[in-house]
Queue: 2 jobs
Job 1
Amino acid sequence: MLQDQTFLRIPGPTPIPPSVQHAMSQPMIGHRGSEAKELIQRIRPRLKTIFGTEQDVLMIAGSGTAGLEAAVVNSAMPDDEVLVIVTGAFGDRFKKICQSYQLNTHVIDVPWGEAVNPDKVAAYLNQHPNIKVVFSTFCETSTGVLNPIQDIAKVVHQTSDALLVVDGVSCIGGVECKMDEWGVDVLVTGSQKALMLPAGLTFVAASDRALNKMKENPQPRFYLNLNTYHDKLTDYSTPYTPALSLLFGLEQVLTLIEEEGFDKVVERHEMMKNMTRAACRALHLPLLTTDQDASPTVTAVQPNDVDPENLRSIVKQEFGLSLAGGQQHLKGKIFRIGHMGYSSPADVLQTISLLEIGLHKAGKQVEFGTGVAAAQAIYTQLQK
Amino acid sequence: MLQDQTFLRIPGPTPIPPSVQHAMSQPMIGHRGSEAKELIQRIRPRLKTIFGTEQDVLMIAGSGTAGLEAAVVNSAMPDDEVLVIVTGAFGDRFKKICQSYQLNTHVIDVPWGEAVNPDKVAAYLNQHPNIKVVFSTFCETSTGVLNPIQDIAKVVHQTSDALLVVDGVSCIGGVECKMDEWGVDVLVTGSQKALMLPAGLTFVAASDRALNKMKENPQPRFYLNLNTYHDKLTDYSTPYTPALSLLFGLEQVLTLIEEEGFDKVVERHEMMKNMTRAACRALHLPLLTTDQDASPTVTAVQPNDVDPENLRSIVKQEFGLSLAGGQQHLKGKIFRIGHMGYSSPADVLQTISLLEIGLHKAGKQVEFGTGVAAAQAIYTQLQK
């Protein structure tokens, strides 16, 4: 196998664009000097488009889970009743964080592979009028489901005065998001998915309503106290040492997204989803989710005639192609193809062509080229 | 289009592996210090495998043409009769260099797209017994032809006492080469092709017979005097300032080649050639060369129903995919696909899938996936 070549097609971390890699390698600067301030000043307004908000997007050195915990400890008061919508492993993580803080935690469990039905959320909130915060994942990375956040926000605000907190880690930057318009109160994401950076930076934006509650929230917290991040950002700074090289990279990521046009970025992700799904269908690979529930950033496949772990191992060894496996009870039952961030229709075509060879080597009857052809047809038909 | 993504599938320069890019960015060192000496000492023995020689491979800061000129001015004396075998644009360059030095230059002109027939060389040398040097390209980049150097060497030495000088710029590192065994007297290559580096370094190896002639050669020359490079390399040094960052990169290139195994590297190039040719046939794209004459590093395609320049422009704009056009009288008539160096079967599959879309957009009737399927079939059948 050609040395030094790998194809990272997992739902995060995702490949880093060369110009971002280059930007991250610029010489270090002091984080309390004018250069750092100017860098944050340049970045600050440009994240808002991606979140669909006029609010500030706070940046914390930490992984996505730090962002999720920040969302929990700032938006929920110690005696709050909260509702967590669990559609997979990352909904489950929200639940675990809430339980760690001994919050009175209600759970709506949705079968893995399905999105939550907003009517169910409405019914639950009607029955439990004391719920103060609703937690939902946007893209459930473990299943490739995109929950209908716009509709969830609508029913949450129609049926309650709860805050809606959303985990957007594996989709923000690759999907349309109108935080303010939809009424999302807290939105979290991470750097290593559609934002094309290494892990180590998490982003949190909050509505005025959420910010007001945070100010009065007695929940003990220090590093993850969003009030301090908010106050410092007003002065183009951070309360604690910022992950500067990631900020260098972030500035270049924003430039790449703006050069392509964020609406085009969203279209590209939609295209990659449609190409991947059409290819899997043509190859008789059952998809875990319906078209309506499918995320533009990751596709879960549940093959009935090959072992997903064997398939993953074959393409990894043969081509350096990394696909993701299943998590928790889906381990060994599905594999997942990431198509987000620094990933294009050309990459999808390559991934499918390698997958076809992998399936053949795993013993599945494959008519070579049929998956690729289905994806090419989608590309040429849907292209704007 | 996804920003910052390009697919360089031309016959040089070729993509640089990330670890080589990284190696080239290490801090500069003095070129007369012990570190540089140690670097050259580490590199020196490792190039020999690739050339198939026990001789030293001299390294000159300059592009491939500097290497070709060095070959001419060192191997041909001012009053020598020389023979140049011209099978394309780079044979033509050898001719022009010889003519610049007012050498008495004989030429065998071969139709572009064909390899030279060794019998023709034998006949020519029999008729012109005073020829002292024969010049031939190994891979003719402009047409994708691989000349049969082993057979040419045989007839040159059977019918004359001429030196055989070979331009191996666009294939050495990607094809089997047995310089000593075959009887090649001077072999030249460049850094930016199968050796996976940026341009700026050229390599020349010479047989004892050629080295002896060089020592007595009165041809005026300074920078390109190979005697000085040869003497200095014995002391792990160079006569003039070496292109150090390219040497940093070269060391890593040699590591990558050794890790893969040079025989596996050669097999990979052969595989990429066969995959590309099978795909073109399946897509009804006429190939410029026969299977026997085809180079493992570059494939020339002569489509009869699309304009190659339009096709190239479509795939460049649509996917950032660079294919090469034709040179001189083949301009506008062919396009060329590079598959050498940091390039894999996975890259060939991707290139073909993008080419299929490009052909469709250029107005050709294409059954999507058929080129990819043909290449996949070759891959799975031929794989060792």
Job 2
Amino acid sequence: MPKKVDHEARRREISEALWRITGSRGLDAASLRDVAAEAGISLGRLQHYFRTRDEMLIFALRHINQLAADRIRARIEALAEEPTPREVLRACLTGMLPLDDNSRIGVLVGAAYYARAVHDATLRAEARNGIPQLGAFFADQLRRAAERGELPPERATEDQAMLLISVADGLASYVLLEVHEPQAAVRLLDLHLANLFGDAVEGQAPAGE
Amino acid sequence: MPKKVDHEARRREISEALWRITGSRGLDAASLRDVAAEAGISLGRLQHYFRTRDEMLIFALRHINQLAADRIRARIEALAEEPTPREVLRACLTGMLPLDDNSRIGVLVGAAYYARAVHDATLRAEARNGIPQLGAFFADQLRRAAERGELPPERATEDQAMLLISVADGLASYVLLEVHEPQAAVRLLDLHLANLFGDAVEGQAPAGE
């Protein structure tokens, strides 16, 4: 195996050690020394892969975002052969919620970075990395839905796409805070899609009547 | 002035010192010693008001949530004499966004608590404190809107009310991350209200056409 691949593989192992600490105790608990211990290597060895804590943090954030993207791609591929745009959107958005161990650690690590990124422009740039592409992908699905007559055409906008991302992200935080059970968050996400797509009234009684 | 009031006033001053540190450097930077220095009092004096750091954190969180609630109440009172339920909802939801210095510090402090609350059940309970009441208030506004024929009646639900809270919270985070300008977040919030209330099509061209 070429040396470069080994290097990347080892960096990924180290970032997984960082996530385990972050997921259980938060990002501030993760010093280079702690991460080295968690990864079962010496501090000197770790510093061979990451010279600074910031370098490690950025790598680990990119890596976890990559895994989240892979997970969402797998969810789309697991759909029926010709999924509707709405099915594609739903698969992506539910993939952003902490519904299982892998996505939960992703959202936990994201929460830790978020709190730090609000005070750190470099991390902030990393944290929002990928959002424009995700927004463009969602907007494309909305346009496809409108073309198929499944969405009111005036709702096939970039703003609606960005709103979808904010909704999923807001719901993900509320699952971590235990405001909502994971399945309630999925229900609220479906409710947002129903509002957006203008689903027909199902005749249920309004609350409180 | 009775002694009890003095005690509370001093505790509020200390919690404001905590927010200033949290707003600029994060919650982990705020030790009892740092907060005492920021408040211009001795550590011993601070410990007269808060025996532990956790006691100080909880008090400061309740205090900032109270200020946010007061700010939202003031926004509602500043509306026209008979605001529509939708105007009331909009005033509350925009009040949750970081649109000025006071609301920005509130959201920054909220971000710091959020990252910590995911690992701490006591803080988690505090962080979600008030959400059920806010949800009930929003659901009540939705029911009023439906009674006035301004909202499809099947949308006057507790779930729609909880979705509104998540949307505002998700957008607030994205303003801190500089994904959205404050005014773009307001625009997306209005878009969500338009989806919810089923606003008539305005005939604008869909994106990309």
